[in-house]
C-alpha cells in the first residue's frame, strides 16, 4: 500500500502520468541542492541518503516519469551506496518494462544499469539490511539477479526494444555492461539528453569492472546473435536512427572485448544483410524524397544515407587492416572521387583515410583522390582534404606530390611567383583569383582578415611535413598586421603555435617571425587569444627570440601588468627581472631551456 500511497501523492491533482505536485518536486529539488552543497561528515550523508532512498523506493517508479525529478533521481543514484542502489533497483523492478520504455524513466534505468556492477562486485554483492525481507513482501533480489532480470527482459523484447526511441538506449547500455566496455556518450545518449544534463553532477564516464566480460560472456553472445537476427529480419533497420546506434554499440564493445567476435559480426553484416546492398527499395517512404537524389550508381545505398553511413564509419573503425582494405577494394575503388564529393558519403572517405596505416594502401587511395582535389574543394568537402594531408604527414609519404596538387587546386602553381601566396589562400580556403580578385585592378593589395577552421587545420598539418619550407616561407611573407590578426584569432593562433614548435621550420624563419611581430607584442599580451599565443611563442623561443619579446614587452610593462590577460604574460616572461635584474633573468631562461630539453629527450 505504501507504493500506491506514494503514487497517488506524486501524481498530483490531475492524475496525469509524469505530473507531480509542487510539494513532491520541491522535496527532490531540496535533495539535489543538499547533494550539491556536500556534507560535513559521512554520518550526515548516510542519514540523509537513507531517508531519501526509502522515499524513492516508495514512489520511484512514479516520480521517475517526471522530466524534472527523473534527472534528480539520476543524481541520487550516483550518490547512493552499493546496498542503496540494490534497494532502489528492487523497487524499480516492479515495473521494469515501463521503466525501460518511458521517455523520462528510461534515463533513470540507463544510469541504474551502469551503476549496478558497482553493487555486484562489492564484498556483500549489494545485499544489506536495507534489502531484508519483510513479512508479506516478495523476496528481495541481489544486484546480480536484478541485472540478469533486466538483461532477460531486453532479450525477450529485443526486436521491439531496439526500434523503441527510449528502450533502445537501455539495450545500448546493457551491451556496455555485459562486455565491461565503455562506449562514447555520443552513441549511448541522445544529443538532447547530453545537453540537458550538462549542469548535473552525473558521472557517466564510468570504468566498468573487467570481470563483467568474463561473467556475462554468454549473455553478450546471446545478445549479439539476436541483434544480428534483427538486422536480417527488420526492413529498413539500417536507415533507422534508433536502431543503428544499437548495432554501432555492439561493434564497439566487441572490438574491445573480443576482436574475433567483432570480425565475425562484421562479416555477417556485410554478407548476410542489406547493409552493403545497392537496392533502393530498402529506403523508407520518408527517405525517398531526401535520399533518392543523392544515390550513387553501383555504390551501397547506406554509404550515402545520413543514418546508415554512421554504421559504415563504425565498421571501418573496428575491422582489421586486412578487412578494411578488402572493403576498399570491393566498394571504394574507382568511386572514391564520387564519394568524396557527396554531402554524406564524404565522411566515410574521411574515416577510411584516417584509418589507413600502410603506405601502399594510402598511395592507392591518393592516386584516385589527387585528380579531384579542386572539385572536392569547390564542393567544400574540406574534411577529405584535411584527412588526406593528415595521413600523408603520419605515414611520411606523397608529401611533395600532395603539396603540388594543393598549389594547382588553389590556382597558384603557375606562374611560380604565385606559390608564395599559398598560406593565405589555404587559410581563407579560396582560389588565387577569388582571393586577389584578379579581375579588379584596384584590389591588388589584399589583407587577410579572417581564418577558416579547416584552413587553419590544413596549414597546421602542412607545417609538420618533413619539408615544410615553402609553407613556412609563405607564412613569413604575410604582413605583420596579418600575423597579429592570426595570433589573436581563435583558429589562426594555432597556426602560429605549430610554426614556432615545428622541427622542420628553420631557425632563421622563426627569428623573422619573432622580429616581424615585435610591434604587436603588447597588443597581443592584452588579448584573450593573443596572450595564449605569446605564452606558446615564449616557451618555444630561443634565448635570442625571448630577448626580442622581452624588450618589446618591457616598454609598456605597466600596461601589461595591469591587464587581466597581460599580467600572466608579464609573470611568465619574467619582465620584472628583465627590467631590474637582467643577468639573473638570462640565467633563469637558460636553465628553463635546459630543463625543457631534458624533459623532451626523456
Folded structure, characterized:
The protein is mostly helical and 602 residues long. The chain is 66% helix and 0% strand. Helix 3 runs parallel beside helix 5, helix 18 packs parallel to helix 21 and helix 24 packs parallel to helix 28. The chain starts with a helix and ends with a helix.
Q: How do you describe this structure in short?
A:
66% of the residues lie in helices and 0% in strands.
Write the layout of secondary structure elements.
Elements: H1 2-11, H2 22-37, H3 42-63, H4 67-79, H5 82-92, H6 96-101, H7 105-120, H8 143-156, H9 158-161, H10 167-179, H11 185-188, H12 191-196, H13 211-215, H14 217-233, H15 244-257, H16 259-272, H17 285-291, H18 308-318, H19 321-332, H20 336-340, H21 346-354, H22 359-369, H23 373-378, H24 382-395, H25 399-409, H26 422-428, H27 432-436, H28 453-462, H29 469-476, H30 480-487, H31 492-501, H32 507-516, H33 521-525, H34 528-540, H35 543-554, H36 557-562, H37 566-572, H38 575-580, H39 582-601
Helix pairs in contact: 1-3, 2-4, 3-4, 3-5, 4-7, 5-7, 7-8, 7-10, 10-15, 14-16, 15-16, 15-18, 18-21, 21-24, 24-28, 26-28, 28-31, 30-31, 31-34, 34-37
Amino acid at each position: 500500500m505504501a507504493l500506491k500511497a506514494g503514487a497517488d501523492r506524486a501524481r498530483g491533482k490531475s492524475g496525469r502520468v509524469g505530473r507531480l505536485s509542487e510539494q513532491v518536486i520541491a522535496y527532490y529539488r531540496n535533495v539535489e541542492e543538499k547533494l550539491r552543497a556536500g556534507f560535513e561528515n559521512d554520518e550526515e550523508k548516510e542519514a540523509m541518503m537513507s531517508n531519501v532512498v526509502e522515499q524513492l523506493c516508495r514512489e520511484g517508479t512514479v516520480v521517475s516519469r517526471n522530466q524534472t525529478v527523473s534527472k534528480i533521481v539520476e543524481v541520487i543514484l550516483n550518490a547512493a551506496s552499493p546496498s542503496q542502489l540494490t534497494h532502489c533497483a528492487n523497487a524499480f523492478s516492479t515495473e521494469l518494462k515501463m521503466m525501460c520504455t518511458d521517455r523520462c524513466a528510461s534515463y533513470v534505468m540507463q544510469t541504474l544499469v551502469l551503476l549496478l556492477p558497482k553493487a555486484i562486485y562489492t564484498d556483500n554483492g549489494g545485499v544489506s539490511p536495507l534489502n531484508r525481507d519483510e513479512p508479506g513482501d516478495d523476496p528481495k533480489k541481489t544486484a546480480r539477479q536484478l541485472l540478469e532480470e533486466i538483461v532477460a527482459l531486453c532479450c525477450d523484447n529485443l526486436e521491439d526494444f531496439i526500434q523503441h526511441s527510449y528502450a533502445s538506449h537501455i539495450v545500448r547500455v546493457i551491451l556496455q555492461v555485459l562486455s565491461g566496455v565503455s562506449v562514447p556518450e555520443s552513441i549511448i545518449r541522445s544529443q538532447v539528453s547530453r545537453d540537458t544534463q550538462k549542469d548535473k553532477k552525473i558521472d557517466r564516464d564510468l570504468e566498468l569492472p573487467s570481470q563483467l566480460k568474463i561473467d556475462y560472456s554468454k549473455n553478450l553472445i546471446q545478445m549479439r546473435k539476436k541483434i544480428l537476427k534483427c538486422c536480417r529480419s527488420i526492413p529498413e533497420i539500417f536507415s533507422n536512427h534508433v536502431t543503428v546506434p544499437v548495432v554501432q554499440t555492439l561493434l564497439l564493445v566487441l572490438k574491445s572485448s573480443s576482436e574475433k567476435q567483432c570480425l565475425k559480426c562484421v562479416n555477417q553484416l556485410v554478407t548476410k544483410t542489406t547493409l552493403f546492398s545497392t537496392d533502393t527499395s530498402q529506403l523508407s517512404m520518408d527517405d525517398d524524397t531526401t535520399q533518392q537524389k543523392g544515390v550513387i550508381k553501383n555504390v551501397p545505398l547506406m554509404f550515402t544515407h545520413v543514418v546508415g553511413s554512421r554504421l559504415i564509419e563504425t565498421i571501418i573503425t573496428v575491422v582489421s587492416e586486412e578487412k578494411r582494405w578488402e572493403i576498399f577494394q570491393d566498394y571504394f575503388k574507382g568511386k572514391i572521387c564520387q564519394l568524396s564529393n557527396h554531402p554524406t558519403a564524404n565522411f566515410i572517405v574521411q574515416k577510411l583515410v584516417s584509418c589507413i596505416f600502410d603506405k601502399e594502401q594510402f598511395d592507392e587511395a591518393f592516386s584516385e583522390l589527387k585528380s579531384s582535389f579542386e572539385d572536392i574543394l569547390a564542393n567544400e568537402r574540406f574534411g577529405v582534404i584535411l584527412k588526406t594531408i593528415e595521413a600523408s604527414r603520419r605515414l611520411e609519404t606523397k608529401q611533395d606530390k600532395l603539396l603540388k596538387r594543393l598549389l594547382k587546386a588553389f590556382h597558384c602553381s603557375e606562374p611560380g611567383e604565385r606559390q608564395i601566396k599559398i598560406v593565405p589562400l589555404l587559410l581563407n580556403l579560396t582560389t588565387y583569383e577569388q582571393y586577389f580578385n584578379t579581375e579588379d585592378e584596384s584590389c591588388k593589395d589584399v589583407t587577410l582578415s579572417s581564418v577558416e577552421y579547416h584552413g587553419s587545420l590544413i596549414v597546421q598539418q602542412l607545417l609538420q611535413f618533413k619539408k615544410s619550407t615553402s609553407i613556412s616561407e609563405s607564412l613569413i611573407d604575410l604582413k605583420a598586421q596579418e600575423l597579429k590578426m592570426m595570433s589573436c584569432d581563435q583558429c589562426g593562433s594555432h597556426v602560429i603555435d605549430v610554426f614556432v614548435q615545428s622541427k622542420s621550420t628553420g631557425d632563421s624563419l622563426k627569428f623573422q617571425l619573432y622580429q616581424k611581430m615585435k610591434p604587436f607584442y603588447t597588443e597581443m599580451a592584452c588579448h584573450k587569444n593573443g596572450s595564449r599565443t605569446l605564452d606558446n611563442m615564449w616557451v618555444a623561443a630561443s634565448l635570442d627570440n625571448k630577448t626580442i619579446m622581452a624588450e618589446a614587452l618591457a616598454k609598456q610593462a605597466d600596461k601589461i601588468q595591469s591587464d587581466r590577460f597581460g599580467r600572466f604574460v608579464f609573470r611568465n616572461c619574467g619582465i620584472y627581472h628583465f627590467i631590474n635584474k637582467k643577468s639573473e633573468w638570462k640565467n633563469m631562461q637558460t636553465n628553463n631551456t635546459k630543463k625543457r630539453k631534458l624533459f623532451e629527450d626523456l
